Every structure is written in C-alpha cells, then in structure tokens.
Inverse folding.
C-alpha cells in the first residue's frame, strides 16, 4: 500500500517532469523568423485552460495513455508552443484544472459566462479553450448554442500528454490558435480542433478511447488545418451562437436532465432514481432507433405522468430517431431527438427547458438545433 505522501510525491514528480518537458520544447522551438505580421496587426487570442490531457503529464515518455490529466498550468502549455506567437498575441487564463469528466452544469455556466465576457472586449478577437476530450463535445455544443458573438471560439484537447512520444497537444493548440485567429472561423459557431481537423461543436463526438483520430462528425469535418492554413469545405447547417434563442448571460441555472442507458435486461432502477432526485427530463439512450423495451414502456409512461419529459435518443452513436417510429410518441407525449447523441441531447434539453415546457415546442426545437 502506498501512503498518501507517496501519492503526493509521485504527483509532484509527474508535475516537475511535465514542466521540464514542456520547457525543453519551448526552448528548442523558437518562433521562426519568417515574415509574419507585426504585434499590432496580429489578432488577440485568449487561451482559457480547463485541464484535461492537453495539460497532462505521464511518468515516462512511453506513457501515452496512462498519465495524470490536468496538472500543467495553461501558461506552461502555451509556453511549450512558442510558434503560436507568430499567429497571434496570446495570453492564458486558468479557469479550472480538471479532467473534463468532472464538468458539471455549474462549471459549464461559469466557463460560458467568462467566454462571453471576453468576447465582448474590443481587445479580444477570439478565444481558445483547452479542454479534456471526454466531455469536450458537450461543452462545445453548449457554447455553440449559447454564446452571442460571431468571434471565433475554438475548443481543443489532446489524446496524449505533453510528456509522451508523439504528443498531439502542441500541434493541436497551434492549429486551434490558427483557426481562432482566422477570418474563416468568424460567424461559424463554436469549433473543435484536433488532429488537423475542424469540426462544428454541434456534430462532433469522441469515438475512441485512446487514438488521436478519435473526434469525428457523422457528416465529416468542416475542414482541415494544413501547414497553418485553414481550409473549409462545408459550413454548419443548424442555427448557432447569434442565431439561437439562448443567451449565456441570461441563464442563471440549468435544470437537471439525466441520461438512462438502455440494454437487454434493463431495469427501472435508474428511472426511479432520477424521478426521486427531481429531474425535469430523462434522456432514454435507447437501443437502435431509440427503442424502449416492453418492460420499460410503462415506466416511461409513469415518468411522463409526473410531468417529467421523456426524450428518446439512441445509443448507436449516429442516425436520426424517428418520431412515432419505434414508439407512439404522440400518444405518450414523449419527445425524440433529431440526430443528437444522448449526451448532446442532455445539453439541448436542459437549455430548451429554460425557454419552454411545452412538448410540441420542445419537439420543434429538437429538430431545429
Ligand atoms: N479524462 C481526460 C479528460 O477528459 C481525457 C482527455 O483529456 O483526453 O479530461
């Protein structure tokens, strides 16, 4: 058994190793002397640190998947990529230092409100958020729906800590700054940049536990970052940022919405627990096309009779859930997602419930966003 002090020592060792590794790269990688815009001409980008693997450190360079996330301060993460100074005037701001699995509604609101404040400043042209990859897609969808600005906002993470062989964080951060500083990103909503790709916060999802090409959008990325150039091939089709009815500055709290994951031999325990906890809606992450097993149908009818909304989503990871397809939603007064996965459906439903409780309206808005 290791003592608490032992843990502390290991943590400190990992942190020091990380700082040294980050500092070493910063020293080697001097910004190139190529013709670049002067300080005045460069956009001002704020990089907000929230933690995650991009701020992580492993005990050795071969620890690509086992390491401690959220230990390196954002200023050190930025200092390890001095090349960004060729692109923009950057400054860091540490808002959290957490694994993104520990995001909650309160942190989401805090982050959104801070980003909104920054975007209102004349001397801020764009914001980059360094974020853990686990729930990055939820934060990105949330910001995409609630920020009221056309200035670029880019959420970035990495799959390997900065201490690992083949670390991806430095290049991802560089690419994120390139995108945030670009005119191409203006008015495109909250974007996600990893692995040379640009995705819309609405569509992107994490699809693999360890690979660097884990972020995918069912309809493909919006574009690429190649040699510091932003190449866009498609645009977000759904309303975002200034086009939505949600305003981060006006939202005081988000209602509780939870997700119940379906499988064979599903029991009613999770639903009962959520009802008892006083949730306002349950996202049923159903099998296939949002299917509900014959023994859960009466449970969900009971849930709805208590005034709690039921939203049928799918655990498959992609595809549209058809209203009145697998279940008679009109008859039960249930809702279906459009193509939002269950975790994104949770974000949207929480936001929608700040606007209306009417099922018909809620359904329309699910199809809109
Ligand atoms: N658990 C980490 C996080 O989401 C994983 C990562 O960043 O890749 O913060």
């Amino acid at each position: 058994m290791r003592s608490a002090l032992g843990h502390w020592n290991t943590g400190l060792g990992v942190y020091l190793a990380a700082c040294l590794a980050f500092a070493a790269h910063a020293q080697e990688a001097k910004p190139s002397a190529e013709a670049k815009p002067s300080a005045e001409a460069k956009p001002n980008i704020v990089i907000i640190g929230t933690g995650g693997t991009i701020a992580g450190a492993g005990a050795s360079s071969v620890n690509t998947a086992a390491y401690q996330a959220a230990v390196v301060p954002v200023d050190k993460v930025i200092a390890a990529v001095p090349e960004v100074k060729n692109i923009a005037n950057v400054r860091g701001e540490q808002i959290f230092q957490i694994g993104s699995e520990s995001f909650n509604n309160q942190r989401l609101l805090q982050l959104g409100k801070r980003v909104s404040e920054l975007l209102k400043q004349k001397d801020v042209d764009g914001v980059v958020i360094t974020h853990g990859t686990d729930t990055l897609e939820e934060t990105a969808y949330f910001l995409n729906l609630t920020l009221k600005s056309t200035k670029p906002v880019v959420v970035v993470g990495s799959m390997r800590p900065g201490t690992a062989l083949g670390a991806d964080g430095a290049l991802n951060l560089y690419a994120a700054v390139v995108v945030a500083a670009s005119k191409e990103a203006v008015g495109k909503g909250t974007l996600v940049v990893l692995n040379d790709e640009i995705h819309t916060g609405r569509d992107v999802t994490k699809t693999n536990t360890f690979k660097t090409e884990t972020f995918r959008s069912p309809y493909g990325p919006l574009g690429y970052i190649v040699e510091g150039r932003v190449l866009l091939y498609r645009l977000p089709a759904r309303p975002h940022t200034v086009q939505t009815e949600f305003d981060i500055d006006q939202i005081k709290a988000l209602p509780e919405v939870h997700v119940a994951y379906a499988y064979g031999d599903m029991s009613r325990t999770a639903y009962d627990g959520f009802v008892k906890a006083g949730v306002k809606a349950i996202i049923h992450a159903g099998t296939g096309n949002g299917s509900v097993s014959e023994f859960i149908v009466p449970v969900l009818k009971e849930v709805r009779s208590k005034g709690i909304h039921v939203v049928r989503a799918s655990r498959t990871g992609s595809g549209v859930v058809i209203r009145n397809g697998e279940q008679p939603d009109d008859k039960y007064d249930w809702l279906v997602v459009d193509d939002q996965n269950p975790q994104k459906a949770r974000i949207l439903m929480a936001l929608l419930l700040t606007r209306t409780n009417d099922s018909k309206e809620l359904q329309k808005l699910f199809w809109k966003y």
Observations:
- The chain has two domains: 4-243, 256-368.
